[in-house]
Design a protein that fits this description.
mainly beta; 5-stranded antiparallel β-sheet; 7% helix; globular; binds dTDP-4-keto-6-deoxyglucose
Length: 136
Amino acid sequence: MSAPLIQLVDIPQRGDARGQISVAEIGGALPFVVRRVYWIHGTNPGVSRGFHAHKKLRQLCVCVAGSVRFSLFDGWREESVVLDSSAKGLLTVSGLWREMHDFSPDCVLMVLADAEYDEADYIRDRAEFIKHVHSS
Ligand code: T46
């Protein structure tokens, strides 16, 4: 049986009577050393994002406010998941076409990445992506 496309990681919650703290660290929720962090927010209504794959990049995507739906495609199968919790991270690895849809107006999507930004790591054409995974 093939591995699931949707890999959700539990992020430990260390909240107390004052409120919440969510912790992602090596040896816990983080399977790699983080070299870049970015966050997507203020997304305009009806906008979808993504529509690309990465050749090498690994990322942990955490929706720290609001909600967003991720769709992942490995060249054969497509699976979808709604992220709406600081307590869950979606691990995205190489060889996955990703799209992000249905952003809530208050969505803040934080992404922890294992490498600096490199446009050469992107495959932004779906047909090229399918060719890439079918030949490797
Ligand atoms: C991903 C999903 C989840 C930078 O200059 N540095 C960066 O670190 C990033 C992430 C983007 N940019 C520039 C490149 C583009 O000119 O910001 C612009 C928007 O990037 P993009 O269209 O790739 O954004 P999304 O939301 O489609 O995809 C992003 C990440 O790029 C991607 O790696 O997996 O979020």
